[in-house]
Amino acid sequence: MRWDNLTEGPTGPTALFGADAVVTRTVDTPEFRGITFHEVRARSIVNRVPGASRMPFEWTVNPYRGCSHACVYCFARKTHSYLDLDTGLGFDSQIVVKTNAPELLRRELGSRRWTGAHIAMGTNVDCYQRAEGRYRLMPGIIEALRDHSNPFSILTKGTLILRDLPLLQEAAAVTEVGISVSVGFTDTALWRTVEPGTPSPAARLHAVRTLTDAGIECGVLMAPVVPFLGDAPEQLRDTVRAVAESGATSVTPLVLHLRPGAREWFTAWLGEHHPHLVERYERMYAGGSYAPTWYQRQITRQVHELAAEFGIGPNGRGAARRVTVPERPVPAEPTQLTLL
């Protein structure tokens, strides 16, 4: 594995962690079988989002690299190549853990240079993946944000977020907190093959209900809408109905996008499970990482109509406390709504 470009050396303080600060562990228990953890002591934890990303937030915190949720479409797969790790199975099973994330965040939030900007979490890999059950980094992270009254948002597929509900309530009493759970579909057969390491869609929607009942406003990112596998009218209807029944404050559709790293892995999966769709995907994504604008607009319109039918709007209550994660910009008519 290539740690050299990320460890302390000629680059000095710009390195991500010290050269002797990597500990590799394997845990022989059923829930972690086949997963290797690389424990590191990070040099910084609050990361600036590149301006070219077009994200509406400027700062993120990512306590993990790699994700055992193993979503075949995950756009973050490319980041594993920076460590010379495989973006396929390696991304799913070689997890980098920034063990000092809570203490580091507390120090950085306390710096006179920090201005209290919104911090987004879960926008790269899921901070409530299975590793969090072992390492428990998020309680310390939320406590630091709470103690500094620093606004933040979390996007997750992990029901483990419910463990930290009391802390989220405490934080919401002193600052702006936005929570969104990702549920792109309720089709269980599709879920088992495309998101094999995640809690079921039903379990995630139960988490939404629990959060909203506890006074934590929670939206649903309906992502990804998978062309030809999860976009049939009856599938969209079933998903939006379930989202409405969960008490979500908003629903935001996001069509599958296939960036380099994820595209190759998804295409291999598609060839194995749905070979008849490979050519259709090649045509649909011939223009790049994103589905055609007309298709994005069509899905967005259908979801909006269904949301109105079931009583949830694109901008539900608490929308001012949420941040927007846009799809590729579309002239005249936006394709994405409020996310967190």
Considering the chains and any ligands shown, give keywords for the structure:
single chain, alpha/beta, four-stranded mixed beta sheet, 340 residues, disordered C terminus, 11 helices, 11 strands, disordered N terminus, seven-stranded mixed beta sheet
Word description of this protein:
This protein has 340 residues and is of the alpha/beta class. It is 31% helix and 17% strand. A 7-stranded mixed β-sheet has the order 3-4-7-8-9-10-11. A 4-stranded mixed β-sheet has the order 1-2-6-5. Strand 10, helix 8 (233-245) and strand 11 form a beta-alpha-beta unit. Helix 2 (101-109) runs parallel beside helix 4, helix 4 packs parallel to helix 5 (165-172) and helix 8 crosses helix 11 (293-310). The radius of gyration is 20 Å and the shape is globular. Mean pLDDT is 87; it is low at 3-15 and 314-340.
Q: Report strand %.
A: 15-25%
H/E element order: EEEEEHEHEHHEHEHHEHEHHH
Low-pLDDT sequence parts: 3-15, 314-340
What structural class do you assign from the helix and strand content? alpha/beta
Treating each run of at least 4 consecutive H or I residues as one helix, how many helices?
Answer: 11
Give the strand line-up of the largest sheet. 3-4-7-8-9-10-11
Terminus-to-terminus distance:
35 Å
**Helix proportion of residues, in percent?**
25-40%
Rounded to the nearest angstrom, the radius of gyration is 20 Å
Q: How would you state the average pLDDT, rounded?
A: 87
